[in-house]
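Write out the 3D structure for:
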Amino acid sequence: IADDVSRDDIGCYGNTQVKTPHIDRLAASGIKFTNMFLTASSSSPSRNSIITGRYPHNTGGAELHTEPPDYMISFPELLRRIGYFAVQAGKFHMGPYARRGFDQVNDNNMLNGDGGEELWVKCLQERPREKPFFMWFAAMDAHRPWGLNEFSGTHNPAEADPPYYLANGRGTKEDLAKYYNEIARFDHYIGLVSEELKKQGVYDNTVMIIMADNGRPFPHSKTRVNDRGLRTPFIVHWPGGIGIKPSECKALLSAIDIAPTILSIAGEQTPEQVQGRSFVRLLKNPAAKFRNFIFAEHNWHDYEAHERMVMSEDFLYILNSRPLFPQSGPADAIGSPSYIELDSLNRLGQLTPEQADIFTAPRASEEFYDCRKDPDQFNNIAGNSEYSRNKDLMAAILKEWMDETGDNVPDNITKDWYERVPGYVTTPHINIRGEPVDKKNNATMNNKKGKF
């Protein structure tokens, strides 16, 4: 699981600049999922969702750096109960409940190395060979700040081609090249893991999943409830279970569907607390349809926020309960060279409408996008009468999900901990938490799923 990597920043998803040969090779002999969505574009809420199969407000860890209660159950804990040897190595970023799921937790950053991957092969080498195993290998690549390492210089800034919603200046190009360097390191260690599995003779019978926890740490991406923030690379490789014929699956999937799928593969029943559903049948038939709707959320991540999103194959609807604030991204993105170049151009009035989107304030409380005509989701048509019926339907589906799953919009939610300027300038609210979104309706005890 990568840290802060968007789907479009992997070679097999069409990026011709980044160097990811090992991931691309796994995709070429596995299944590449093109519509897997996270439940939050924020690392710990996203990881809590993945490991429990629950929406962020139902885990009790909906805000960055908050933890679910001890009674929450993770799927590795269930795997251990049926005899699996489970190991975590790299970034952990979850609470004590998740630690129960592992025989070993290797979250010492000094031992894990700058990218978080140094112990991955060692964990495989030292596992008890008589037991089935589960490994949660979590990189710190490509989280900021960029480190100097053996992959520095892998990508030439002069050849970097920033997406059109970023600036095209030297600072952004260098920023993007360094980001790609970190992805290259992540890819390198995936290659080492693959080779070790082959040496041990278990490569064909090991399910490998490659994904990320949220979008790239750049303006327009991380913390956003759009494709750039939520759509993750997702590759499943399992020669002994799905064969080696390369496949692409376009079905809508949610990160909460990962836990029940892994439990199903392991022959374990899915507990009632899991809100996702197993997509194991897609491993045999990638062309099948799965979900009709995806739900996601944006809660506090450095800054005050409350957004909810529902997506279908055709449309995206966003409800923003804090529209007074701009969507500038988290503090690490605001401090980036990419943001600083956009900010400089904004002061000169030289931004395109797409580039200027991150500075818009107040924003619309409702956003609606036709993903067929506007796949990048910049043209808000919430006020277009031609789409009023579609928008109202999606809004009703989102409200039903919020009500059914016990979601809440507290008046006293967590405020900005930092000024919305580069440099992590603190506010008087630093380290003060507001009311959690799960508290009022006791959402951590709610197992309802909403529309599927």
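The mean pLDDT is 97.
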